Amino acid sequence: MPTPLLRSVHVHPVKAMRALATAEAEVQPWGLAGDRRWAVVDAADKVVTQRRHPRMALATAEPLPGGGVVLSASGRPPLTVEVPHPSSTVTVEIFDKPVEAVPAGPEAADWLSTYLEGEFRLVHMDAPEHRRPVDPDYALPGETVSFADGYPLLVTTTSSLDALNSLIAQGDHAHEGPLPMNRFRPNLVIEGAAPWAEDGWSRLAVGEVTFRVARPCGRCVVTTTNQFTAERGKEPLRTLARHRKSDGRVVFGQNLVPEHTGTVRAGDEVKILD
């Protein structure tokens, strides 16, 4: 097998909005810099995602120096949103757990409410004391995460996607494949590994940064959402349910926790340490 390499790096400035590829990214203890530091909440201050609002896939948040974003979507004028002053916070709910965040101004709320056709607002998380703990069943003391589903980073491999697409091609919904990697919304995509090799990883180094593999990533309905049209199908969940289950969940990719900070770059060599 060739030496595995980091093929691409992806950040999601606003949770559930369009992913952005970048040549490199700073790895912070709680994820890539600028990744999922913002989230959209509904009238009950619950974080919303493509699970309920697939049209979020069609909205883009371009990062600005200093942590702000520019929101854009078809039919909506772009809106610049600066990082709000942390003088007051609100308690929002993500996966039934409370966390403190700072609300952006009313202009962002108006933009989102019009686009998603409801009552929504944008919130930001940055202060160390507001970060969420990683699932204690799979975490070391002090490990934290931002608005990502549960862990600081997600890694996938191109060979495993190829293997999955081969399985989809043999099924009842072959017409839905092959699926692109953006269905899985990873941070790091590795090429040059054997299919499903990541199942056996416990530690790896990507360039200058080492990571601990926490657990396989359980997948949800978001993976069935076309990230370019917001339309939904049956795959890959139907095929994953037949071939890729762990602890009662369908899985694809691995959740990572950084062991230290540094920078990862597309083209970095990947070393499997354990």
3D architecture notes:
The structure is a single chain. The protein is mainly beta. The chain is 11% helix and 37% strand. The protein is built from three helices and 22 strands. The strands form five sheets. Strands 1, 2, 15, 16, 17, 18, 19, 20 and 22 form a nine-stranded mixed sheet that branches. It has a five-stranded antiparallel sheet with strand order 6-5-12-11-10. Strands 4-3-21 form a three-stranded antiparallel sheet, with no helix packed on it. The longest helix is centred in the middle third of the chain and has 12 residues. The radius of gyration is 18 Å and the shape is globular.
- Taking all residues together, what is the mean pLDDT? 96
Q: Tell the overall outline.
A: globular
Let me know the largest β-sheet.
Answer: 9 strands, mixed
Number of helices: 3
Count of β-strands = 22
CA-CA gap between termini: 17 Å
Per DSSP, what share of the residues sits in E-state strands of 2 or more residues? 35-45%
The share of residues in helices is 10-25%
Give helix and strand order, one letter per element, not per position.
EEEEEEEEEEEHEEEEHEEEHEEEE
Give unreliable regions as ranges: none
Cα Rg: 18 Å
Structural class: mainly beta
